[in-house]
Automatic annotation (TrEMBL):
PANTHER family hit by this protein: RRNA-PROCESSING PROTEIN UTP23 HOMOLOG (PTHR12416)
Record-stated family: Belongs to the UTP23/FCF1 family. UTP23 subfamily.
InterPro entries in alphabetical order: Fcf1/UTP23, PIN-like_dom_sf
Function: Involved in rRNA-processing and ribosome biogenesis.
Name of this protein: rRNA-processing protein UTP23 homolog
Organism: Engystomops pustulosus (Tungara frog)
Amino acid sequence: MKITRQKHAKKILSFYKNNFNIVPPYNVLVDGTFCQAALKHKIQMKEQLPKYLMGEVQLCTTRCVLKELESLGKDLYGAKIIAQKFQVRHCAHSTSPVSGTACILSLVADDNSRHYFVATQCSQLNSLCSERDRILIRTGSGQKEDFLSAQAQI
């Protein structure tokens, strides 16, 4: 990782640590689009995210995200396999699954008490999460070297 990118990430993480008491191990909620982008760019999330965040990372997803990937068929089969390897966090709508975006938003709603990071490529989820104060959004720009860039929306 380049030094400037590492300094930027360290600055953002120290801000969240000091203001919102977000400390390792970091809980990273991953949606299907992020898994697909990681697969496309051949990025090992379990290796790269801890390096970037400079601490332990717990990658997790929800049942709704897994159901959404399953319903989208063969095009996202690889992303589904990747997402199945993560911890599955229980959501309020396990009996009637909703879209992955709605499910992730419900988990980080209001105060984000579990201090989730959101890993997404979805522009809709990105814009909805950036309106909230306590969420660090991790998005990839599409190029391999810029894939793990961070945005802090405060």
